[in-house]
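Lab notebook, bench 4. The sequencing result for the construct came back, and we need a structural model before the next group meeting so we can plan mutations. Quick request posted to the team channel:

Model the 3D structure of this chain.
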Amino acid sequence: MPIDPYILLLLGTVGLAALFPARGSAADVASGASTAAVALLFFLYGARLSTREALDGLRHWRLHVTVLACTFLVFPLLGLAARGLVPVILTHPLYQGLLFLTLVPSTVQSSIAFTSMARGNVPAAICAGSFSSLVGIIATPLLAASLLGGNGGGFSADSLLKIVLQLLVPFLAGQLLRRWIGRFVARHKKVLGLVDRGSILLVVYTAFSAGMVQGIWHQVSPARLGGLFAVEAVILAVMLLLTWYGGKALRFGRADRIAIQFAGSKKSLAAGLPMASVLFGAQAALAVLPLMLFHQMQLIVCAVIAKRRAQDPAPEVSAPERAAASRTAVGTGTRSG
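Done. Here's the predicted structure in token form:
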């Protein structure tokens, strides 16, 4: 049962914000640093993501359309359905965070890792995660503005301008400069990964500090957290079953169904946290809580599933499936998650 060490760091950061929240001028400095950190994050995302490889992967277009439909259509529909649980099980702020969770893109690294562990179509998982991240840069803010409206964080022309300046412009700059800095980014992957994670910790500290100063944690009781956990467990179970048996109904092979299940049932903490800080502003603390909980839950459940899939007898692969896997591998190349 894997406990992500980074989740422990995030929880430690939340505890630090609870004990020593940034106030006054310190809060202004932390907010400015957080804004710069978000811009840096999306610049590095743009510098890392190979648009050509993601688009080449569309040769296996049925699989990618299936994953995108799960990520940006089925998940949001489940989030909208959960509106009926307010206020009996969920408070309105927790529901807003839950709905936002359903809008963020899929993961890349964990999808690849679990697909590989389960002996699935790894090239397809790489393409699916990359393409989901690419689409999510645009789709997540637009879906949030449409579905959350003024209730999320006060979506206005100013909010949309912040989204463009803090998310889209740095991402496009990274894409444009990738030709010259791509190799440098690849060589220093570990160091820049620490920069990524450190930036997200700063974003979390700033968001939870604001929450402590405003006293929003009085809105969350243990019973409400238990209700949130139960709702997210149901959503994850529905998506895992839907991606697996839906893939079978669409006549995907076993390897493709594994890639669809792991890429289509998960949500990215790395992309979601900085987006929430921009979209929700001072209300970001409660908005990211459902995402942090879901992230750990999906890691534990998917690790168990991947280990069981790895013990399945090796299936006989038909000639068309081998040809499809070969085309995907050629289109994808060797790309790290």
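DSSP finds 15 helices and no strands in the chain.
Will bring this to the meeting.
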